[in-house]
Specification:
Helix content: 25-40%
Number of domains: 1
CATH class: Alpha Beta
Organism: Cellulomonas composti
CATH superfamily: Phosphoglycerate mutase-like
Distance between the termini: 37 Å
Largest sheet: 6 strands, mixed
Strand order of the largest sheet: 5-4-6-1-7-8
Order of helices and strands: EHEEEHEHEHEE
Pfam families: His_Phos_1
Protein name: Phosphoglycerate mutase
Structural class: alpha/beta
Radius of gyration: 17 Å
Number of helices: 4
GO molecular function, one term: phosphatase activity
CATH architecture: 3-Layer(aba) Sandwich
Shape: globular
Strand content: 15-25%
Length: 228
């Protein structure tokens, strides 16, 4: 059988001084820390790790056999994927199926106090956390992500491919592949900024799921706004 690996990467930290849930809104770019995260992951995957990059430790490891890098159309994902594509000498591709989840609270601050939850007109959107009622159903996210994974696996058959996406779509895809329920506590997601969830296939069969944080040295103090 042919071994293929599809890496689902979450983008780096975003410049978001107002703390809004930016969702699919345009114009949200990586922060300086986020750009550094992207370059650290690029160095790690391309085998240039084991040292420092602008003072940040880059985990060592062999050069991965990446033959394609594909990102969500959102700016933060494109900026994360660009240095990785450059490190492997490939053109950055775009796939709208790996975009962020749709969310009613997009563009708002989310919470009590001065956030959107203090306004009763938003409360009906919280009625069903299992679907969820405030945004794109988990199952629909999984279906579009898996379709993109299947196409990426065919494209990179026998090699590796990186798909740069967003926390929630990556996490629910992992839950589905591991046979776990899709509704969950967002605080328990294992999908940090610039993390890599690796799906290993033997032919068409999934044989393993791995998780790594090549940019872990940059995580302390990083933004963790819900829905990033």
């Amino acid at each position: 059988m042919v071994a293929t690996t599809v890496h689902l990467m979450r983008h780096g930290e975003v410049h978001n001084p107002d703390g809004v849930l930016y969702g699919r809104l345009p114009g949200y770019h990586l922060s300086e820390r986020g750009l550094a995260m992207a370059h650290v992951v690029a160095a790690h995957l391309s085998g240039a790790g084991g040292g420092l990059l602008d003072g940040v430790a880059v985990p060592g490891g062999p050069r991965r056999d990446v033959v394609a890098v594909i990102a969500s159309p959102l700016q933060r994902a494109q900026e994360t994927g660009a240095p990785i594509a450059a490190a492997f000498g490939v053109e950055l591709g775009t796939d709208p199926r790996i975009i962020e989840a749709g969310n009613h609270f997009q563009g708002m601050t989310f919470g009590v106090g001065d956030g959107s939850l203090r306004h009763p007109e938003h409360w009906p959107y919280l009625r069903n956390p299992f679907r969820p009622s405030w945004g794109e159903p988990y199952r629909e996210q999984v279906d579009r992500m898996l379709a993109a994974v299947d196409d990426a696996r065919a494209l990179a058959r026998g090699h590796e491919v990186v798909l740069v996406s967003h926390q929630l779509p990556v996490w629910v895809t992992r839950l589905a592949l591991e046979g776990r329920r899709l509704w969950h506590d967002p605080r328990r997601r294992q999908c940090s900024l610039a993390s890599v969830t690796s799906l290993r296939f033997d032919g068409d069969r999934l044989v393993g799921v791995g998780y790594s944080e090549p940019a872990a040295a940059l995580l302390p103090g990083a933004a963790t706004v819900a829905g990033a």
